[in-house]
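Example 139, ligand zinc ion.
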Amino acid sequence: MLKIKKEAVKEIKKQAEEGYPYEICGFMLGNIDFENNVRECTEVFQVENQNKERANDRFEIDPKDYLKVEKYADEKGLMIVGIYHSHPDHPDRPSQTDLMFAQPDMSYIIVSVEKGKTKSWRSWELEEKNFKEEKVSLL
Ligand SMILES: [Zn+2]
């Protein structure tokens, strides 16, 4: 399950709405309790969506941004607990592409933005190579 600070959710929604009609993405940082499968997100870190051609339905993260986020997290004693991205004018369900790039032990928040406004959001985790909606509790 995912525990996430209210302010972090607010920030993700804000980024998703500001980025509309393009897909935005970023990292969720915090801590992971592997034993109990609980991820805690205390802050978010937006990175640029490198896919300019199909930026409305696909996201790509520059490896350099990965390193930048890892360095930042290290310095603050945080871990990367997940990745969030938006689905402009599409439901908050993961796509086949999302599944292809997903990794275990991570949370994937998807925000559905319709006409520039957040409609809904959910968090997903991998289970047996498929996405399963995960329980979210706000901090
Ligand atoms: Zn997606």
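Summary: The radius of gyration is 14 Å.
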